[in-house]
Amino acid sequence: DSVDLQKAREHNLRLDEEILALRNRVRSLDSEKEMLGEVVERLRGEIHESQENKQRGNHSPGKTVGAEQREQV
């Protein structure tokens, strides 16, 4: 009985360690998901802004202005 109890305790300890590692992994993945979601939203905004500028015939603020356009300004 004593040996079985010790084995059960060791097994329980290993399971607890595995649960802790899995919880940490979930937290890490949740943080990564949140960060990537923010990047997606920012990029969606940039795409929307770029499309609006294109429809208006404006240059997007992120574009590099060529030498010919600099001389006209």
From TrEMBL:
Keyword Coiled coil attached: yes
Residue ranges that the Swiss-Prot or TrEMBL entry lists as coiled coil: 5-32
Ranges of biased composition (kind: Basic and acidic residues): 43-55
Keywords, in A-Z order: Coiled coil
Span list, region Disordered: 43-73
Record's protein name: Uncharacterized protein
Organism, as annotated: Ailuropoda melanoleuca (Giant panda)
Lineage: Eukaryota, Metazoa, Chordata, Craniata, Vertebrata
